Prior knowledge:
The structure holds 2 protein chains of 2 kinds.
Chain A: H1 3-12, H2 19-36, H3 46-49, H4 52-55, H5 75-80, E1 85-86, E2 89-90
Helix pairs in contact in A: 1-2
Chain B: H1 8-16, H2 22-35, E1 42-45, H3 49-61, E2 72-76, H4 103-109, E3 114-119, E4 139-140, E5 143-147, H5 153-160, E6 166-171, H6 177-183, E7 186-189, E8 209-214, H7 217-227, E9 252-255, H8 266-281, E10 285-288, H9 297-312, H10 330-341, H11 344-357, H12 363-386, E11 389-393, H13 408-412, H14 419-424, E12 428-437, E13 443-451, H15 457-467
Helix pairs in contact in B: 5-6, 7-15, 9-11, 9-12
Amino acid sequence: MNKEEIKKIADLARLEISEEESEKMAGEIDAILGYVDQLKSAEISDQDTESRIENAGIRNVMREDENPHQVSENTESLMKEVPDSDGDLVKVKKILNN
Amino acid sequence: MDLSNLTIKKARELLDSKKVSVRELVDFYLDKIKETEDLNIFLEIYPDLDEQIEKAQQKIDSGEASDLTGIPIAIKDNILIKGKKSSAGSKILEGYVATYDATVISKLGEHCPIFLGRVNMDEFAMGGSTENSAYGVTKNPVDPERVAGGSSGGSSAAVAADLAVFALGSDTGGSIRQPASFCGITGLKPTYGSVSRYGLMAMGSSLDVIGPLTKNTEDAEIVFNIIKGKDPKDSTTIEDDKSDSANDDVKKIGVPRSFLKEGIDEIVLENFEKSLAKLKEKGYEIVDIEMPDLEHSLAVYYVIMPAEVSSNMARYDGVKYGNKIEGEDLIGDYFKTRGQLLGAEVRRRIILGTYVLSAGYSGQYYNRAWQVRNLIKKEFDKAYEEVDVIALPTSPTPAFKIGEKEDPVSMYLADIFTVSANLAGVPAISIPEKAVSSGGNAKLPTGLQLIAPQLKEARLFQVGKKIEN
């Protein structure tokens, strides 16, 4: 990986990253991916490639959409933790310019 | 009265027989916490101790005490207690106040224990040394020049320095067992889904589990039995095991020998062999087993974990909660907040995770890793047809020096023996092995790791009790 690729990935992840750090991180990520590359050598049968979800025994757990909590029950405590708010509204900068 | 090194049972006796009051017990720990401030273990002592003490003492005085009433506990900084600060060792959550109780806190809370305070950790539980905390490294009480391990380093150091009767931690790839081993205490990573993750800040959602760090196996068992159970607020929780553990005697213990070849400290190998000899003495049959896919565990872990991290960390955007750094526009807010308030290791894992999930690479990395993860899980299933428990060292080295490991891969290699239990979702315990001398006068402890099939924690407790001290 080079630092341009790191910058691209950091953009996708919404992370500000300096030139210096992206250069350093390119080497580090390369080393990690180099280690991880051994996964290619694991022997996987056709059966094991079928479905990762089925093999892992993972299933969706759903519940009825019922018993909502009281309106505004948690509003005050939640709004207290919002960095920028206006009354009971979360405030963000405008995303459409003229 | 000597209150040092109290287990849950001993503290219970003292409190119930009125030989000591809850306040005296709490004061004993508060004094010790003050004396050991240099170790940087506690991030905060909760401001409502008086209230908690009064409530617990009343419960004892009215004869309604249960297992944990009045027992002082330390809580890892990523487990939520309503109305109390919780920062996960990160600047992005500095000052954040939890709006609800984690399920483990509600379950412990029924007993009226004393939540003393929150303890240090690697930022968002990412690390193996607590050096990644935004609030400074936690030093190992055994040797302050060395790390306490991580990510639950504050929890393990608090128990090892005797600043609480026990502590809660979380384990994604070894974060309870490795620090327990580094500090010479007991640490249990329960079966995935046996303990609710509701109110635990998520790191790797298919791997995370909450567990106790304690002074002995019996305490780990007591705490586990209180915090476990199905929870409607965490859909990945599973029913308690209904099998009869009394009739589940451990006889055979398997050792995957070929996995123990390189990069392991001599002291660790020496102590491991001693532990195996001790197990034999106690009547267990020790057999070698083959688990060839175990060697891929760490590679699988370092794909799946960062992938899950990159998704879970998306919520920290400076909009909904936590801290914020202003940018020029909304997207600028995101970039600055996340770029400046998340630490280097967290950002590294977000980038790695985003990469392995990105178009064109997810087949090669993420899907492949899941396929190999399933192989590892099958390998455990197969091994348990032959043996009752698997034994491995907890960590390839004893506690290392602060600042010693600079590049990420060498730090990640410290997880080599612990991650497989998380990948397979099986329970594992680290039992302290006697400290031996290492490079000078320091007596560094190591850990024996025992791994059981899913929901068979009882087997770990059975063997642990037989061999400790």
